């Protein structure tokens, strides 16, 4: 795992110092008894005081998310059909944002990062997880397009046929246009990650 912390040009101290070290080689409890952690998380230690907003452009995906939240009695989740390039909310609304595999199908990633920055509260954090390899990232898209063709279900889809994947430097550059207090970038396995804190 390669971890890199980037600080602004004003030479302020990063919140989390940069480090490079080998990942702990011991086995994880989560790999062997994840069901027990899930039980505690879902039934004993669930915190419904945290409000969660999920967004997607697909009403079908949102319906599925609503059904799933209802099935496990989550009352703190809201799901909205929005375009991440035009988030319909006020500035500085959220404490934290999570985006995973968003940029593989998004045409304007810089605009999405700008929107994420805009809606984060000062001190808020944004976590982004994106695939590193086009082959692996494109498999789900390829399978969906293939199934759509076999089922003859139209041809007006907005998703590309191949996933967009950023090199390590291009991924890092995505975040440089905003005045983050700190940006932490690392790669692990098939994914690359960014954790950004708003000033």
Q: Features of this protein?
A:
199 residues; alpha/beta; Rossmann fold; five-stranded mixed beta sheet; two-stranded parallel sheet; globular
Structure description:
This protein is α/β, with parallel strands linked by helices and 199 residues long. The chain has one domain (2-22, 33-46, 83-198): Rossmann fold (3-Layer(aba) Sandwich), CATH 3.40.50. 32% of the residues lie in helices and 26% in strands. It has helices at residues 29-44, 59-71, 109-119, 134-150, 168-174, and strands at 2-6, 52-56, 77-81, 94-100, 120-131, 180-188, 191-198. The strands form two sheets. Strands 1-6-7-5-4 form a five-stranded mixed beta sheet. Strands 2-3 form a two-stranded parallel ribbon. A hairpin with a 2-residue loop joins strand 6 and strand 7. The radius of gyration is 19 Å and the shape is globular.
């Amino acid at each position: 795992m390669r971890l890199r912390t980037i600080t602004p040009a004003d030479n302020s101290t990063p919140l989390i110092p940069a480090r490079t070290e080998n990942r702990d080689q011991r086995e994880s409890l989560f790999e062997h008894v994840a069901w027990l952690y899930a039980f505690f998380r879902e039934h004993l230690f669930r915190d419904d005081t945290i409000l969660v907003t999920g967004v997607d452009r697909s009403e079908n995906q949102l319906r599925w998310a609503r059904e799933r939240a209802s099935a496990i009695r989550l009352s703190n989740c809201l799901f909205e059909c929005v375009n991440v390039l035009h988030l319909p909310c006020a500035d500085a609304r959220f404490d934290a944002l999570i985006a995973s595999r968003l940029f593989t199908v998004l045409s304007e990633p810089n605009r999405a990062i700008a929107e994420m920055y805009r809606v984060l509260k000062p001190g808020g954090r944004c976590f982004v997880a994106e695939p590193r390899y086009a082959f692996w990232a494109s498999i789900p898209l390829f399978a969906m397009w293939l199934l759509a063709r076999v089922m003859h279900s139209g041809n007006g889809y907005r998703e590309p046929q191949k996933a967009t994947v950023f090199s390590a430097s291009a991924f890092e550059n995505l975040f440089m246009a905003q005045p983050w207090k700190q940006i932490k970038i690392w790669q692990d396995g098939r994914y690359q990650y960014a954790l950004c804190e708003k000033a």
